[in-house]
Amino acid sequence: MKGLILSYMGKKDEAWELVKRGLKNNLKSWHVFGLLQRAERKYDEAMKAYKCALRFESDNMQILRDLSLLQVQMRILDGYRDTRYQLLLLRPQQKASWIGYAMSFHLLGDYDGTLAILKEYCKTQKPSSQYDYEHSELLLYMVSVMLEAGQQQAALDFLNEHDANIMDRTYTKEVRARLCSELGRLSESETVMRELISVNPENRAYYAQLEELLKPSGPVERMAIYADLRKTHPRAAMPRRLPLDFLTGDEFVKELDNYLRQSFHKGVPQLFRLVEGLYDQPGKADVALRLVEGYRSSLADCGRFGESDPASSAEPPSTLVWVWYYLAQHYSKLGRPAEALRVIDLAIEHTPTLTELYSLKGQIYKDAGDMSCEYLKEAQSLDTADRYVNSVCARYLIQAGRMEEAEQFLGRFTREGTIAGEHLADMQCMWYLTECAASYKRLGQYGQALKKCHEVERHFNEMVEDQFDFHSYCLRKMTLRAYVSMLRLEDKLKAHPYYFTAARLAIDTYLMLHRRPLDALADDSERQKAEQEQAARLAARKAHNKEHDADSDANAFKEEALDPEKLARTDKPLDQAVTFLRPLLNLCPDSVEAQCLGFDVYRARQRPLLMLRCLLKAKSIDASHPWLHACLVRFLAMTADQQGAMAAMEPPVRALIVQHLPSLFGSASVAPKAFNDAFLAKSAGNFVNTCWGLRLKYELEGSTSQSACLAALTAALSAGSAAGIERQLEACSNAYIELRSGDLFGTVDADNLNRLRTQLHDLFPYAREFFSPTDAAAAAAAVVKIQPQVLNGETSNNGDE
């Protein structure tokens, strides 16, 4: 017992010594030994200790309860079922004993067993009051089990029987509508769906389900449905927005005109986001532009949407501002930043105190490649209490590599007396960590980048550990549906996009460090200086957190501190890469990027069968992906090396690879160069695919092909300028960065680089990445100070142009 107390006081070494001494003197102390193991997150060892303790005290409720918690945490479901059965035999009068035993059957997929146990338990239970929420949750949990078991009729009968005791009316109606639809009772399902729409007329899913029930034969019947709904819900926006997705011709123009007019009149800032999906349909973006430009002209001339509108329909001055706001977003999306800036400047001149206008102007500059962030700063200064604008400004600064400025902005909304970055990391702010990791990687500070990636991984691991606190709580409080959802979420937690982003950054960095260890980059004095300054700054400011650390829970599990220098100089970078890779391959089976990452890692580890598995899976997902093409060419080049890589393989491995070559390439004898040339021929007009193909051409043919590759890249840019390449700034920027670093076509002379930079600058005049040294120095020295003022007329001079 003393050892257990010392453990909770943070004196781990003394605690372990005392517990081991106690175990030698009394073998019944295995339970305490297991508690210490659990505190160290050594769950397998803790379960072994609990099982040893049960040999001496087989009926000890506390040991059985602790063992069951570990078993469900580790998803040892057969053992969990047996343990819960023992608890039920010992305490049949406890609610948690019955619910836990039924839950074990549910997690194992035995729905009939789950329902049998719960029905037996319900025989002894009655609602304690008219509003018994725990009993209501139990009933809804039983319905959810029936749904999973495919027992639709039984679930509907159960709902009807216990309808008076169920408190969650919305969920009940949703389930009832679904069950009636599946059982063919369409009219009853339609009635329930209309009731749900009356409760929440802005729920898009309800309208989709109603359409499925009514089965309209064409746009005319679909429109009739929404026309009827508009009569019953005249203030709802969704019945007016959804028809725009399927209408065409004059009907579309009419409905879009009405929708836009009402939205502009109300001043809906997110209007462009609401109709942005229409831009993917041919011709609809042009219709929207024609209508909105007409509004702009008429509002400026006569204050109405149309010159033929009655004088009584005059709009307030703010309507014109929102029209300009929409047009600026429209032009920015189409890759026309000059027009977008001209329009947003008109809006700023009209209303210089509207925060959204400066935020949009900063976003336009950022999308055009200018990361100066001055207009985001101005937006933030207009409303210093707006956390969202502050976070957007900090995010843009991070992307621009201005980490200290970003931290100053973030410090305005973090706890006083702490380092903003560390506070956000403690709060598991994922966007901050992933953006920092990407920015540090671009700056060449690989240790800091890896540290952020590992922090993301630790946060996800902590989320998995945090479910431990809910295994008992949810059974006591009867939040059973939420509990099952949580368990299933935790099982696939690392499929989340934040983890995928961090894992991909970490894998790319470790692969780079494998190819070029940090010692080989030691002559990069700027990178070394930046990392040293960053480390010194953090070390100096960590003193502010000592008091906070002293007040933290002494018994809390503490992992080893992440050292950026140690992470960047690891002697096993591929092992670290595999640690990040495994969850992606297991939890993202439909991601071609995950399979390509797996191929790159296993190629570095020289694992041909695992490479083959990734290729086969990736091709079944998206055979046209350019990254997959690169993997296929590299694999084909390996198989073509009969005297090298293929000769080193074991005969069974070699035979299996040869067997699958036709399924991958269409023939077992195709040459890598011919395969890549065919891909390049098909990629005409696609800049991203062309870049991949040219990269592989250089890999296959060597430095002798550099001139041809550069000429082809220049031609692709020229051809792309007429095919909408203005919207591919990121792809062009990545190609230029890799070309400049030598990763694309080796070392390229300054003249060729300058010619390509000039060509890119003509395509993206606002992108600072493509500025000449003189222009870049001038832009860096210029401090943009915005002095908003109201001007008359529709003429504007952009101060940055």
TrEMBL record:
<dbReference type="InterPro" id="IPR021183">
    <property type="entry name" value="NatA_aux_su"/>
</dbReference>
<feature type="repeat" description="TPR">
    <location>
        <begin position="27"/>
        <end position="60"/>
    </location>
</feature>
<feature type="compositionally biased region" description="Basic and acidic residues">
    <location>
        <begin position="546"/>
        <end position="557"/>
    </location>
</feature>
<dbReference type="Pfam" id="PF12569">
    <property type="entry name" value="NatA_aux_su"/>
</dbReference>
<dbReference type="GO" id="GO:0031415">
    <property type="term" value="C:NatA complex"/>
</dbReference>
<feature type="region of interest" description="Disordered">
    <location>
        <begin position="523"/>
        <end position="557"/>
    </location>
</feature>
<dbReference type="InterPro" id="IPR011990">
    <property type="entry name" value="TPR-like_helical_dom_sf"/>
</dbReference>
<keyword id="KW-0802">TPR repeat</keyword>
<dbReference type="InterPro" id="IPR019734">
    <property type="entry name" value="TPR_rpt"/>
</dbReference>
<protein>
    <submittedName>
        <fullName>TPR_REGION domain-containing protein</fullName>
    </submittedName>
</protein>
<keyword id="KW-0677">Repeat</keyword>
<feature type="compositionally biased region" description="Basic and acidic residues">
    <location>
        <begin position="524"/>
        <end position="534"/>
    </location>
</feature>
